[in-house]
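Hey, can you fold this?
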Amino acid sequence: MEKVPMTAAGYAMLEQELKERTSVERPRIIQAISEARAHGDLSENAEYHAAKEQQSHNEGRISELEDKLGRAEIIDVSKLSGDTIKFGATVTLVDEDTDEEKKYMIVGDVEADVKAGKVSISSPIARALIGKTIGDSVEVAAPGGARAYEIIAVAFG
């Protein structure tokens, strides 16, 4: 069984979603199904079919969350240090063409959110950065073409 690396914050986020889905969503959907059943003929009951679809989606996500939490390998970023980029590092980059500064934290696949500055360990940019240090240049294959970045800072925690 393959471990899923994640930060403590990512683990807590998944736990919270699981709790929400099991203690709030599940009972709400069960209530919607029983109300729809009370309307009679189930073969032509759109409310019933919609509620059953919601139930299927919710139960599928619960199973997925339980699997990921069960295989989680929590990495305490606050205990990491050094100049070499690895999981949990917050990296500040400068685009060599535009001089635009970007900051990314390398996190597990399940907690990646590019808008929040969190990139997945398996993303092209994270793979290009792993093992590099301050001052190194990296080239990343992006959808709009290759981009070159210089690493100007690496931090943990």
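Oh, and this one too while you're at it.
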Amino acid sequence: MNLADLLLMMVILALAWQFWRVRAMSEKAYGYLQDYCNKQGLQLISLSRRKTRIRPFHGKLDWYCEFDFEFSGNGEDTYQGSLIMRGMQVTDTQLPPYRV
């Protein structure tokens, strides 16, 4: 094994670790939204990641993810909200006015 092989293996491991980190962020966002919707009396329908970037947060580089989600207030209509995560922290949740 030479230096190029070792470097290639380290790059592959770093990419795999980052993939799992973003995946964990998506799972945390889904769990957060389930709890949020249950507390508000809403039905969570779907969640999708819209944007993923690396940005500084609390003095270090970390993932910045924007999510779109669909929910219903009365079981008939659907509305689209947004959620922003920086690292593993939810920093903003926005919902449009909805019918109960």
